[in-house]
Amino acid sequence: MSTLRWTTDRMDQLERAARDGLRVALTRRGTEYVVVAQRVTSINQHDALIGWLPMTGEELTFRLDEMESFQVIE
């Protein structure tokens, strides 16, 4: 598994997506998700993205150190 290298630009993109409620396509453990970003927060001393699946309304938590890739969809 290859995790992302989190630069300030990438964090800014993710925080902007959460602030503006944009969709984010991300890969974690080989599975791709497309979620609407809700917030970036800390959970158990790990940074995480909270997003919801539009199809089901389910809220999902993605630890940033487990994400393999992400792209903000505008």
Provide keyphrases for this structure:
74 residues, alpha+beta, SH3 type barrels, five-stranded antiparallel β-sheet, globular
Question: Would you kindly provide a written description of the structure presented here, covering whatever features stand out?
Answer:
- The chain has 74 residues and is an alpha+beta fold.
- It has a single domain, classed as SH3 type barrels (Roll).
- It contains one helix and five strands, in the order αβββββ.
- It has one helix at 8-20, and strands spanning 23-28, 31-43, 46-52, 59-63, 67-73.
- A five-stranded antiparallel beta sheet has the order 4-3-2-1-5.
- It is globular, with a radius of gyration of 11 Å.
Briefly say what this structure is.
With 74 residues, the chain is α+β, with helices and mostly antiparallel strands. It has one helix spanning 8-20, and strands at 23-28, 31-43, 46-52, 59-63, 67-73. β3 and β4 (59-63) form a beta hairpin.
Secondary-structure content class: alpha+beta
Number of domains: 1
Total strands? 5
What can be said about the biggest beta sheet?
5 strands, antiparallel
**Alpha carbon gyration radius:** 11 Å
Strands ordered across the widest β-sheet: 4-3-2-1-5
Q: What is the N-to-C succession of helices and strands?
A: HEEEEE
**C-alpha geometry:** globular
What value does the average pLDDT take? Answer: 93
The top-level CATH class is Mainly Beta
